[in-house]
Amino acid sequence: MFPTRRQALKTLTAAALASTALGRLSSYAQTPAPTPAPAPAAKAPTGPFTLPPLPYAYDALEPYIDTETMHLHHDKHHAAYVNKLNEALAKEPSFFAGTNIDDLMKNLASVPESIRTAVRNQGGGHANHSLFWLTLSPKGGAPKGAFAKALEADLGGIDKVKQEMAKAGGSVFGSGWVWLVLDGGKKLTILTLPNQDSPLSEGHFPLFGIDVWEHAYYLKYHNVRADYLSAIWNVVNWDFISDRYDKAIQA
Ligand SMILES: [Fe+2]
């Protein structure tokens, strides 16, 4: 039986529609679906603290501290402390009145509880590393003036200090620092603190700290922290530390 004209038209129309739909489908298959516009990223706070530049070239402390470690340590780890500190402070906008990082760490107890741990860790990281870069230098040298005398009187001299700091730094479990500080009575003291805890928060004035977390030495010294603690003395900026001691003792 032949289809009626109406039936034939219906069949043609259906075929045409199917063909068009297939054509569309095939053209969709060939053209990548448009990528939706990315959602606007949450804007990271850009202050109040910023990453200080290194006071020397990244390769300046070679071969004792290698270039790649300096890049990672400064550009990634220190930068992360700064960013996370700013993020924490942004959560308590009425608290922070623009003090410097050392004063913030000295007054950690007055930081709102909701962000105190973050400020302790990230602010401590920023304070400690900011000082660390300044206390290193390719020039090396030796303690001088009143500081050299105080090292002798309080701690038995620079050789003893190197031994004691290497020993104490080697005993830190996990992340932390070994510090040469002026204690509350302005006496030179060696101590260790865990993680990024700042000596300032403990009532001490830091003169020189050695970061003994693995990120400070692992690329060059692998797991042999003792070799790093022995090599670092070649690049200590004793002029800077001696001057820092003089200013602190006169304050
Ligand atoms: Fe570090």
Written account of the structure:
- This protein has 251 residues and is mostly helical.
- Among the domains are: 67-134, Helix Hairpins, CATH 1.10.287.990; 145-250, minor pseudopilin epsh fold, CATH 3.55.40.20.
- It has 9 helices and 3 strands.
- Strands 2-1-3 form a 3-stranded antiparallel beta sheet.
- A hairpin with a 5-residue loop joins β1 (176-182) and β2.
- It is globular, with a radius of gyration of 30 Å.
- Bound molecules: fe (ii) ion (FE2).
- The site of fe (ii) ion has 7 residues, from α2.
Count every beta strand, where a strand is a DSSP E run of 2 or more residues.
3
Low-confidence sequence ranges:
1-31
CATH topology of the domain at 145-250: minor pseudopilin epsh fold
Q: Assign an overall shape.
A: globular
Structural class: mainly alpha
User: Averaged pLDDT, please?
Assistant: 87
By CATH, the superfamily of the domain at 145-250 comes out as Iron/manganese superoxide dismutase, C-terminal domain
Instruction: State the end-to-end distance.
Output: 113 Å
Strand line-up of the largest beta sheet: 2-1-3
- Provide the list of bound ligands, each named once: fe (ii) ion
User: Count of DSSP helices?
Assistant: 9
Largest sheet: 3 strands, antiparallel
Percent strand: 5-15%
Helix fraction, binned, reads 40-55%
Briefly, what CATH class of the domain at 145-250? Alpha Beta
Q: Which series of helices and strands comes N to C?
A: HHHHHHEEEHHH
